[in-house]
Amino acid sequence: MGSSMRTSLLAVVALVAALELGLVGANFQDTCDITWEPQNAKFDEGGNHLTLSLVSNSSGCMLRTKKQFIFGSVSTLIKLVKGNSAGTVTTYYTSSIGDNHDEIDFEFLGNQTGQPYTFHTNVFADGVGQKEMQFRPWFDPTADFHNYTIFWNPCMIVWFVDSIPIRVFRNHAAEGVPFPTRRPMYAFSSIWAAEDWATQGGRVKTDWSKAPFVAEYRSIDLRICECSSAAGCSDACAGSGNWYAAPELCKLTDSELHQMQSVQLGYTIYDYCADPERYNGTMPPECSMPQY
Ligand SMILES: *[C@@H]1O[C@H](CO)[C@@H](O)[C@H](O)[C@H]1NC(C)=O
Ligand SMILES: *[C@@H]1O[C@H](CO)[C@@H](O)[C@H](O)[C@H]1NC(C)=O
Ligand SMILES: *[C@@H]1O[C@H](CO)[C@@H](O)[C@H](O)[C@H]1NC(C)=O
Ligand SMILES: *[C@@H]1O[C@H](CO)[C@@H](O)[C@H](O)[C@H]1NC(C)=O
């Protein structure tokens, strides 16, 4: 067998492995492991409903997908901690393991009863983060389940809330801005104690007499290019035949763009690209590059 034949055979094997997409509408018990304080996780409804509890300042809970992936879409429905959630942080993110890691974050910072949550977003590539944007939710995220989706393809990362894009981080790797493309990630969700900084800059502490603080989850949808070793599948996951690589998914539609602009106009509370003092006048290069 010639070496080019062997190479293309390997490529086919990798492609088949990569195309084994995740399970749509799958349940938490089948798709995830509890990797921190399993006694604080409770599954019911056959694994489709899950609660994670924060019990004390050293005992929260963490969920992690069994599978690793490069590119795709991960979504879940979350109802955040009701009432006084000051000092609590509920997270929903993807991350690689090891040095110079890649990570795409949603973090939900709690507040006193009646005061608004903060939706914090960030992205790390090659270990470098500090690309924060924060939003006020335009609804009460503790009253009902809402759909939080991380979409990641070779063109861009999009954070969606109930199918409304709230933020895009475009791939400007060609212009020297790191973008995650080759490190397999897991998806995670957790609840933990962060009263030192989370609420009003740490001024409002957690009322531990109200513990446990409970985040509720329903249904998880993983449409991912499964990949556990970059050498084995990152090329296949980058391939143009994957569903998320369709040319129309390389930018937002006009109506998505309008939706995002109105959310950003009305609900942004922090944007690192609008914080020149932090950078002493020299803004990160991507801040002056097209994002959409
Ligand atoms: C956590 O709670 C314990 C018991 O109330 C307290 O002694 C300890 O100082 C707290 N630790 C932190 C980091 O706040
Ligand atoms: C979240 O919404 C997207 C559509 O934007 C949908 O494809 C996905 O299945 C939803 N996720 C869940 C867990 O229902
Ligand atoms: C909590 O509420 C206060 C007052 O409305 C607000 O300033 C703050 O941004 C809210 N969120 C957090 C995480 O502190
Ligand atoms: C900020 O810029 C000023 C003037 O160029 C310089 O003196 C100072 O060292 C800079 N500070 C930082 C933190 O880069």
UniProtKB/TrEMBL annotation:
Domain of life: Eukaryota
Domain GH16 residue range list: 26-217
PROSITE patterns, A to Z: GH16_1 (PS01034), GH16_2 (PS51762)
Secretion signal span: 1-26
Carbohydrate attachment residues: 111
Transmembrane segments: none
PANTHER family: XYLOGLUCAN ENDOTRANSGLUCOSYLASE/HYDROLASE PROTEIN 8-RELATED (PTHR31062)
Protein family membership: Belongs to the glycosyl hydrolase 16 family.
Name by which UniProt lists this protein: Xyloglucan endotransglucosylase/hydrolase
Originating organism: Eleusine coracana subsp. coracana
The gene coding this protein: gb22939
